[in-house]
Automatic annotation (TrEMBL):
Keywords: Transferase. The keyword Coiled coil does not apply. It comes from the Bacteria. GO terms for molecular function: transferase activity. InterPro entries: CoA-transferase_III_domain, CoA-Trfase_fam_III, CoA-Trfase_III_dom3_sf, CoA-Trfase_III_dom_1_sf. SUPFAM superfamilies: CoA-transferase family III (CaiB/BaiF). Transmembrane segments: none annotated. The keyword DNA repair does not apply. This is CoA transferase.
Length: 800
């Protein structure tokens, strides 16, 4: 892979599990040489199947083959001094190491992250842990399930119906998010190293990754507006609904989409622009009639109408149907792995850049002798003064809502100069979605989602409907390293700003395009919000109860897309550094979603298994469920819960001991996972009774200190109450010229070389930097005044 962006970049993988495996897969796909160092027993993922499929001794499971394709395997026994020395020799000549706890090798004192950072100052050391390397919760047990509970992601945006327990997002999405964040952090840190700096320690918290991916800035929202986003679980209507021939997802993310849905179903009489109810409340009132209307039609009929009305929609994919969907077939969204199963193609496409195709995974220890005997050239740490990783990169940011801005926001926090382009007629959609009335002064500056997604950016307003506005945008692009947008493809086509046009302005530009469904295929022009992306990719399929329609996660599709887009842009910038050539990056939201739902199609094509939603049960732990506590919640409801997940036989014994070894738990069949799964209902009955008599604090205090993964099911706006997040300074307080001070999330990883603080300025006011940026382009004060008078620029929305 000599033409790949990461050719020559050597990564030692000391991790086990999906998060580290996915991180190093993304790096390997970019051309890095990844040396997976394992104990003689191998990574447990080699023997993993979510469906419980039998994997023959000496064979590898399909998921491992997906994650480890193209990597090298070296076996090292931590009990052998020579093997530990071999690992240190590999590290001395590597560029980065990815570490996670839990294996005898990774837990060797000389191979802990701080020790690695001290012994090899040139190395980028990325540590992936449940809660971070320090803080009061460091080292405590956790699973995907309990991390979702602690993050607020189980309650999320009010997902699910109030007559049952809230439900987690199915699959292992947090592991993939954490792996994606770790990869992006490594690539960003590498830019700092290429600038002459030494290595650093990246401390990634999976809890914080869950916060970023499964909740929607709830703390900033609560502190700015004095109310939570949702105070109860409500079904999104119509959301995922049954039609004559299956399930479809039709959603209303804006008031206009609700009005269009009313018109589409023949109910213009429901349209009330002055209604005191939110669109969610209005839709819930009409749910019976909407569901009845949809049940009388086929999926194609409903989706064709919704598309005509510009309402987000998608089929609800399942493991056995997702490949057959017309859009994915047309785009070649799935490919065959050399081991014979099917998998998603790469989560992004970079024109002119070679990404590694699906490749065989190494056999355990296949390359040990090669690396034991190979000559090595030790790396040396740079001595240049620290600068922010993306310092010197200018981004023209045409993105809106969540997916695109989340990508450019991370770039800003990592040091890029990000110029957010809006207009007074078409400003960022997040300036309107929080329900601040337009009768309130400067309402457009008081929207918490915009405030949270755009800190440290600059803002310019240009009316791109005018020739002068377009001409100024062209001049701004000429100064940019990256141009980012996330409209449907037809919008930029209409503006004449496709890649070839932008390349004429700046030949070496990296252009990031983030359409929901991609730049081609039959769905290319369909509007795409998170929920329809999640449905189309199969994430929704695993979320909810088996006897009901799936629930929409309603959050994951956007930040996951932004995160994968960031990885792609960093690869493209490295390609430019090496070759002097720019690149078109196509980071479709749905491709990123397919990648983190890969296990579904892999299990189906490898083993014929259709993974199913199971409420709050799952394949990682048994028992695993939510249990109601004795408390009344802050809204006056009997709706307080804890999450418990027993992921090993040792944790089961710890649970029994913590409960006082009750007679019911002495059944010898419960000593094994197989036995516990067979009697899950019985276990749940007893655990429910025990929890119902206790507070969440008492339950957590009893079980967690005994070594059992457990968590409160947090309301997301209560995240600052978690002492771990406070200890790690995950939130920073920012002032604002219009709004009161509030807390803002930072990033789910800490870089030992900074930035600290992470936020350098609050979100910009509309058009705040017009004069600064236009003067930089050579415009005089009179020129700028003329533009204001003509409405080409401005600082106040032009409504109507």
């Amino acid at each position: 892979m000599a033409d790949s962006p990461l050719a020559g970049f050597v990564v030692v993988d000391l991790s086990t599990g999906i998060a580290g495996g996915y991180c190093t897969k993304l790096l390997s796909d970019g051309g890095a040489e990844v040396i997976k160092v394992e104990t003689p027993e191998g990574d447990p993922v080699r023997r993993w199947s979510a469906s419980g499929a039998s994997i023959a001794p000496g064979e590898d499971g399909a998921l491992f083959s997906f994650l480890a394709g193209g990597k090298r395997s070296v076996v090292a026994d931590p009990a052998e001094a020579g093997d530990v020395a071999l690992v240190n020799d590999l590290l001395a000549s590597a560029d980065a190491v990815v570490w996670s706890p839990g294996s005898p090798l990774a837990d060797d004192p000389t191979l802990l992250p701080a020790a690695l950072h001290a012994a090899h100052p040139h190395l980028i050391v990325a540590a992936i842990t449940a809660f971070g390397l320090d803080g009061p919760w460091s080292g405590r047990p956790a699973t995907e399930f309990t991390l979702q509970a602690w993050s607020g992601g189980i309650v999320g945006l009010g997902r699910g119906a109030p007559d049952r327990a809230p439900v987690y997002v199915g699959g292992q999405v947090g592991d993939y998010l954490s792996g994606s964040y770790a990869s992006a952090a490594i690539l960003a840190s590498r830019m700092r190293v290429l600038g002459g700096a030494g290595g650093e320690l990246i401390d990634l918290s999976m809890l914080e990754s869950h916060v970023m991916g499964l909740t929607y800035y709830p703390v900033t929202y609560f502190e700015m507006l004095g109310r939570p986003w949702r105070d109860a679980r409500k079904l999104t209507v119509p959301g995922i609904a049954r039609v004559k021939d299956g399930l479809v997802d039709v959603g209303c993310g804006t008031a206009q989409q609700w009005f269009d849905l009313c018109a589409m179903t023949g109910h213009e009489d429901w349209i009330d622009e002055g209604a005191p109810l939110t669109i969610t409340e209005q839709a819930n009132e009409k749910s019976g009639e909407l569901y009845a209307w949809m049940a009388e039609r086929t999926g194609d009929e409903v989706r064709d109408l919704a598309t005509a009305f510009r309402i987000p929609n998608a089929p609800v994919a399942s493991p056995d149907t997702v490949e057959s969907l017309e859009h994915f077939a047309a785009r070649g969204s799935f490919v065959t792995h050399p081991a014979g199963f099917r998998q998603p193609a790469a989560p992004y496409r970079i024109a002119g850049v070679e990404l590694r195709p699906p490749s065989l995974a190494p056999r355990l220890g296949e390359h040990t002798d090669r690396y034991r005997n190979a000559p090595r050239s030790p790396r040396h740490a740079g001595t240049a003064a620290d600068r922010l990783p993306l310092s010197g990169i200018r981004v023209v940011d045409l993105t809106t809502f969540w997916a695109g801005p989340s990508c450019t926001h991370l770039m800003a926090l990592l040091g890029a100069e990000v110029i957010h382009v809006e207009s007074t007629r078409r400003f960022d959609g997040t300036r309107m979605i929080a329900g601040v009335p337009v009768t309130e002064g400067q309402w457009w500056e008081k929207q918490p989602i915009f405030a949270a997604l755009n800190t440290t950016k600059k803002d310019v307003t240009l009316d791109l409907g005018t020739e002068r506005g377009r001409e100024l945008l062209h001049r701004l692009i000429a100064t940019a390293d990256v141009v980012a947008e996330n409209f449907t493809p037809r919008v930029l086509d209409h503006l004449g700003l496709d890649y070839s046009a932008v390349q004429q302005i700046r030949p070496d530009v990296v252009m990031l395009r983030m359409p929901g469904f991609g730049l081609d295929g039959p769905w290319r022009d369909n509007p795409a919000f998170a929920y329809v992306i999640e449905a189309a990719a199969g994430i929704s399929w695993l979320t909810g109860y088996p006897d009901r329609n799936p629930y929409e996660p309603y959050s994951l599709g956007d930040p996951n897309a932004g995160l994968h887009a960031l990885n792609a842009v960093l690869l493209a910038l490295e390609h430019r550094r090496r070759t002097g050539q720019g690149a078109l990056v196509e980071a479709a939201m749905v491709d990123a979603a397919l990648s983190i739902a890969a296990e579904q199609v892999i299990e189906y094509s490898a083993y014929g298994a259709v993974l199913e939603r199971a409420g709050n049960r799952g394949p990682i732990a048994s028992p695993q469920n939510l249990y109601r506590t004795a408390e009344i919640d802050e809204f006056g409801r009997d709706d307080s819960w804890v999450a418990i997940a027993v992921a090993s036989d040792a944790q089961w014994q710890a649970l029994c001991d913590a409960l006082g070894n009750p007679a019911w738990a002495a059944d010898p069949e419960l000593a094994t996972e197989t036995g516990r799964r067979a009697r899950a209902d019985v276990i749940d009955e007893h655990l429910s009774a025990w929890c119902r008599e206790r507070s969440s604090d008492e339950i957590v205090g009893t079980l967690w200190h005994a070594g059992v993964p457990v968590a409160k099911v947090m309301q997301p706006h209560r995240q600052p109450e978690l002492e771990q997040l406070t200890a790690r300074e995950f939130f920073e307080v920012l002032g604002h010229p219009v709004n009161p001070s509030a807390r803002f999330t930072t990033m789910p990883f800490r870089l030992s070389r900074g930035p600290r603080p992470v936020h350098r300025s609050p979100a910009p006011l509309l058009g705040q930097h017009n004069r600064e940026l236009l003067a930089e382009l050579g415009l005089s004060a009179d020129d700028i005044a003329s533009l204001e008078a003509a409405g080409v620029i401005g600082t106040v929305p032009a409504l109507g």
